[in-house]
Amino acid sequence: MLGIIVRRLLLVKISIDVWPSIFNSERPNDLLDILRDKWSGFMKQYLAILIACSPLLAQAQTPLHTQSKDRDYCAGDDPATMSAYEMLQCARGNGNSGTPNYPAALKWYTLAANYGELFAQTWLGFIYQNESYAREYGVPRDLVQAYKWYDIAASTNKVCTDRLPPGANRENNHKEISYREEVARQMRPEQIGEAQQLAREWKPLRRISCSTDR
């Protein structure tokens, strides 16, 4: 982009310099000499400007995500001053960027989930249930944690549904329950018992965050 701007500005300058000389010339050979001299000067100026601006050009051509590799987009933000939905946006920003920072995304998903954000709770279930997701986010596959978060998400969805005014389009928690039951089919009874105990002991760090609160 900078190179294009430089070329256009120099071409304008040439036009301003050349046309008076052309009109004042009396022979065709004079015209060719004028154009040759002006073009040579143009190229020298163009190359000098490009060399001087090469650091800026290199920076401008560097994709933004490579300049922010492994950056936590919400580093320094205080969860105590944020809503659970804002924490969820931090998680999405870290997980969906050009160069995802999955450890930071997991941190913010966990914070948002513990502050009562329904989507974050469900997504943690996906992460711990699926081997590829778990590997991506840097955690071991853990069906107990997956069941726990699906169970918590089902309870959260019920709380949010109960808050809706009469006549509103009432969501249900069937999806979260079906996810939980799918995981349960891969678990031993003692694992299910452990997950249920963890879900019962879990308490949100703040009032449950529903979409109607945003």
What can you see in these coordinates?
- The structure is a single chain.
- By secondary structure, this protein is mainly alpha-helical.
- It has two domains: 60 residues; 135 residues, no CATH class.
- α1 packs antiparallel against α2 and α6 packs antiparallel against α8.
- About 6% of the residues have low confidence.
Helix fraction, binned, reads 55-70%
Structure annotation, total helices:
10
Rough outline: elongated
Beta-strand portion reads under 5%
Fold topology:
Layout: H1 2-24, H2 28-60, H3 64-67, H4 84-95, H5 102-114, H6 118-129, H7 131-137, H8 143-163, H9 174-184, H10 189-201
What brief labels describe this structure?
214 residues; mainly alpha; 2 domains; 10 helices; 0% strand; elongated
What can be said about this structure in brief?
This protein has ten helices and no strands. The protein has 214 residues and is mainly α. The protein has two domains: 2-61; 79-213, no CATH class.
